[in-house]
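Sharing a chain and its predicted structure for anyone who wants a worked example. Both blocks are below, sequence first, tokens second.
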Amino acid sequence: MPERRRRFSPQFKAEAVQMVLETGRSIAEVARDLGIHDGTLGNWVNAWRREHPEPDQPLTPVERVHVKELEDEIVGCGWRTSS
């Protein structure tokens, strides 16, 4: 019987990426602690680095998820954002 794919919230992904970026621990170590496959976490970290190539980030991955959620909420209310 095929396995069902696990789904992870944007918050969980952002926190996992933040753990890798801020602690200096390897992707494999963090993935093992979180009970996820290291290839999965590696994909999330690589995607984040591609999307945020500048060396110094003013916001952490978790903060960026919060901002995105707030932007989505504003758009869902019919308000327009400046960007």
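Comments welcome. DSSP finds four helices and no strands in the chain.
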